[in-house]
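DM from R.C. (forwarded with permission)

"hey, sorry to bug you on a friday — could you get me a structure for this? deadline for the figure draft is monday and I only need the backbone to look sensible"
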Amino acid sequence: MRRESDFKTWIPAFAGMTREFALRPGFARRRTAHWAALLILAALPLSAAKYEGGIPGAFLEQASGARALAMGRAFGAVAEGPGSLIWNPAGLGRAARDEFALNYLSLFEGASLGEISWASSYKRPFGLGASFIAYSFPGIVVRDASNNITGETKDEKMGFLFGGAAEPWKSWTFGMTTKLIRQSIGGTSASAVDLDFGVLKTFNRYRAGLQFQDMLEAGLKREGGEDKLPRGVRAGGAVRFFGSALFSADVLLRQGRDPGFRAGLEYSIFNTAFVRAGFDGSLPSMGLGLAVGRVGVDYAVLSSEALGLSHRMSLRWGFGAPSGEKMLARGQWKQEYIAKAQTNKQDKKRRLQERAEQLYKEMEAQAHAKQAKQALTGQQWEKAFNLSSLAVQKNPANSQAKEILDKSLAAMERLGVKPQSAKPPRLSVPKDSIYFRDPFGKNALAGGDSGEFGFLVKNADDAGPAFGLEAHVSLAVPIKDLDFPKTMILGDVWNAKQAAVTIPIKAGDGLGNGKAEFIITFTEAGRNPPDPVKIVVETRRQLRPDVKIQGLPEIDDGSYPDPERVAYGNADGQINPGDQIEIAVTLANAGEGETRAATARIVKTSDDRDIEIKTSLKIQSSYDLGNLKPGEWRKLVFGLRVAKEYKSTGVIPLALEVGDSRPQFKRVLPLNLKAGQVYAKIQTVEVQGAAPAAAGMPVLPSFGQEQGAAPTAAGKPVLPSFGQELLSIPAFKTPERKNAYAVVIGIENYALALPAADFALRDAQAVRDYFIHALAIPQSNIVLLLNDKATGSGMTKYLETWLANNADQESEVFVYYSGHGAPNAATKESYLVPYDGDPAYLESTGYSLSRLYRKLEETKAKRILVVMDSCFSGAGSRTVLAKGTRPLIVDLKKEAPGTSRLAVLAAAGGEQISGTFEEKQFGLMTYYFLLGLKGEAGAGGKGKIYLHDLYDFLKTKVKNEAWRKGNRKQEPELLYREPREWEKEPLAVLR
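My reply, with the result:
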């Protein structure tokens, strides 16, 4: 094969071939023009790689999108959307959205190439796509045998592509493309139809693709020859690394051609801007991409030895539902398809069995009718009667048997002979055949549910047939909320046969507790019905589910190398313009009844374009909740992208759409998220089913209720509140502390890769609120330092300079700290760890307790209170340790305050662990500190809460809870010298 750089060497060859063909008899100018155009087309630099030169369908790959071209056309494992029709049809099943794509490029010498394509892979577990590609090259000079110019012609090529893909197994996708290629040149046209097959397999971050090209080996037939589409195989692989980088490589094998190799690289910036580069067998390529919402623009620059650089640009527009809904629809459709197929198979088998039985009965009836006719001819009236009765028994539709039965019966009546075989039926309803079924196996019918009861009606072996049997259903006491058929037609029941009766029941929403007594009576044409039957069914009132959002949403706006997550941000715990975050929402069933096939889907409540719901393999936009029992809960994680141009400061227009198979229980729950507000970091909480209580209702983790709280009088379960009860602050009449100052510090995430101090942000925010309302400190006198605001310099600025500049002899100072503590292995001193602190260099990056106490005592304040939800042993959830050191026992009393003005409330002793309260999503000590301020610690003081009462309360609660939950020791300490200044006035006074 020749490359584009050989273009000039082909001109003499073309002239020689033209002369040779001109000498042949009957060679016309039209044929000369045809061959000339084909040879010129072969020289066109439509492909930078030598691999595709001369293939009739090579022009298709040039119109398949600038992204693929920029990545060196190494797209066999990356293909998604419309481009899959060319690179690998299996990619039609992996499109992120329904998509239109447009490509147009103007080539050299007036040549042009355009494409419009579409792909969809939603609502069913397969994808479809179609594409139209047109290429035109005008101005081809036609010469005669003497090399004289006789005119001009043009070469036109068109490609019509249609394909589909299916995903029969998880992560395996198969696809096929049908290609119609048509070429017109010099007044002659030729067409070819061929097929491509493709396979895609996903392995977490890896993808593998295989494409079999032109399997029919079709050709463009023309006078004097045929241009074949050679068979080929494209094997590709792709891997995503560093979260934002994608590498792909393809190996191509075509019949009669050398192997080809391609490679490409793509790097994304916040999934919005893309930088690409590739190698196309012999020459490099590169490009850029931009995706804003559902619109994307791609640009590629290609290198050609013959033409230098050429530029390509394509536009794509996505529409329709996101991929999370597609995957959910796929699963639902597949389940419904399998269930329907199984039902159809069973129905078909049953119909075949019934038909076989019916045919056998008809054959038997025909035989009996034939014998009865012979007996009737011989005037054997009784024999004719018995045989015809038997025939009618087998097949009531046998008119010949009925006619013989009537004639023989009439003859016997004339002779006064009574038929000996004319026995009445003996019908009964066996007690063991009576049943009742409800959809949930509770042997009771609940409001809003459906059920059925049934039984068998049997006829004795030696009895006569029963004709026109009917069952009539009624209630002994009418119940308006029950719907059921009043009459069931059973037809004829012959001797030794039985009829099955099934009576469906539909209960209304208003059905109450009690019993429904169904009375079934029967009628039979011969007045020989079975005895009536009474069936008693227990009824229950409808237990309604009530799905609610429990607690506050949590967010994660950090950065992950995992491409299957969507969070990218500065980890400040806020929803800021330009952030891409994950939102965790806890849904709990607060009702008495369980949900039915419940779903949860995040939706936008307005058409705000600056808010976009994001998904990945791990983060979906909708989830299947199944049947949530009362008290059960699920934590769901959703993705959200806020545009940089987002200006609103109000509530972000997002809600959860909670579905149920019963429309009356569907709900839309607003999330009430606000931009700029600090939220707690997403915590992992294990979901456990609730254990049944003695009364049959589940006992749930209280998440903010007192331990041992029982279900309410209405029987509803106690719901997890995740400490939300602390957010409802009661009314206080504490005298306003106009001259009080407070520094509140909460550090949950650290600059270095330290373990998170879970719930520290939530601790600090709640303490700040209680300082304002319970302790009556003016909000303007409180400094709140969260995460990156609580650096070493930030803590020094406010704990030392700010407090010293503001506090006077009449001031009260409050300091609260929630975060990591650390021990110094050399000096055994205790340190607070700032946001930028390093446990290995505590003396220069930490903030020691001795320094804290000294600086606070240097202020002029008359009273100082320090509250620390941290520990300093190096073992536990709120302490860290320098690498290579072991947990220490530090003596907090050794570093105790030097004056009676300063009181210190520490979460644990020097050798103990300060833990978190997972069920409340607070620090354990902080939770009971706030609960005590709320009034639990002031029961004996007529609404006045003193420091010693607060300490006694939380000491007992923390000690018991730590032992109960983790079999560990945590006992808060109050470091306080005599005379105790804080005993003179209460901390807070309840209204």
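R.C.: lifesaver. Residues 738 and 891 are 36 Å apart (CA to CA).
me: no worries. The first helix runs from residue 10 to 22.
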